[in-house]
Task: structure prediction
Amino acid sequence: MPQATLNHILEQLQSLELSELQQLNQAVQDYLTHQEQIAKTAAFHQSLITSGLVRKIKKTSGKQSIRRQLLEIPGEPLSQTIVEERR
Result:
């Protein structure tokens, strides 16, 4: 960020009220937390590649996974049926 832009932002801080400063502080903290998480993820991915555990990190599609509604099936649970059949 150029120094002139930073100075302009710092000058604007003086005109903000306390509640606005608190909102700004929260927004900056949220932004920094997000950026730190991105950096940690990138470092982790790079370490996986460097160590040879993976060759390529696939990008996620960014789509939300579909929330499926569970169905109620009569009878005993499938897991219980499997356990009983294995005995």
